[in-house]
Design goal:
α1 packs across α6. The protein has 213 residues and is an alpha/beta fold. It is built from eight helices and twelve strands. Strands 4, 5, 6, 7, 8, 11 and 12 form a seven-stranded mixed β-sheet that branches. It has a five-stranded mixed β-sheet with strand order 1-10-2-3-9, with helices on one face. It has a single domain, classed as DHBP synthase (Alpha-Beta Complex). The model has no long low-confidence stretch (mean pLDDT 94). A hairpin with a 6-residue loop joins β11 and β12.
Length: 213
């Protein structure tokens, strides 16, 4: 039996072709593993209920646990979120790409599994070069949950992936070792004032300053 397909994004000479191949697999409803600014993530087309279901099955993730998304840019906000407050757009302009996940009201046609039944979706624009290039090449929102079984440690390299995760995806995008470290700050902007749900790399004082205090 052949192992998982691994394409290299470390070498600039092969990076473009590797990312293009990964984006094609996403467009066909596949699931990939890709590097992010902290750990490796499981990527799928966030608008495909079947692809998202595969991500949940691979992780053994509880159905009520929402999945964050990576966007190709701030302009894609309207594809996944509605009733976007001015504060959200101001924060996106200030911190994206970067480690700030904004929680917003989800559009009605987003798969329910993404929201975990909450009606809300968490989104960010990644600062990691391969993750950003992948989202741009795909042209839409992709899942950004860590590539590990639920409750297990996240992986910082392809070599550290659990065998069931590596073998269950259609492609492994190898970008080398990821930085690890603190996760993104998760901020709920459906309430006023916005509320920090998870402390991370962007501090509350930076958020307050961006919103004019």
């Amino acid at each position: 039996m052949s192992g998982p397909v691994i394409v290299g994004a470390r070498d600039p000479r092969t990076r473009g072709a590797a990312i293009a191949r990964a984006a094609q697999i996403l467009a066909r409803g596949g699931v990939i593993t890709y590097p992010t600014e902290t750990f490796y993530g499981l990527g799928a087309d966030a608008m495909s209920a079947d692809a998202v279901a595969r991500v949940f099955a691979l992780k053994g993730r509880a159905a009520d646990n929402p999945v964050p998304l990576v966007l190709p840019g701030p302009a894609a906000l309207d594809r996944v979120a509605r009733a976007i407050p001015p504060a959200a757009r101001a924060l996106a302009a200030r911190f994206w790409p970067g480690p700030l996940t904004l929680v917003l009201q989800a559009v009605h046609d987003l798969p329910e599994a993404i929201t975990g039944g909450t009606g809300k979706v968490g989104v960010r624009v990644s600062i990691h070069p391969e993750a950003a290039a992948l989202a741009a090449a795909f042209g839409g929102p992709i899942t950004a949950t860590s590539a590990n079984r639920s409750g297990a440690p996240p992986a910082r390299s392809i070599e550290a992936l659990d065998a069931s995760i590596a073998g269950g995806t259609d492609l492994l995008l190898d970008g080398g070792e990821t930085p690890g470290g603190p996760p993104s700050t998760v901020l709920d902007v459906t309430c006023d004032p916005p509320r920090v749900l998870r402390a991370g790399r962007v501090s509350e004082s930076e958020i307050r300053a961006a919103l004019g205090g």
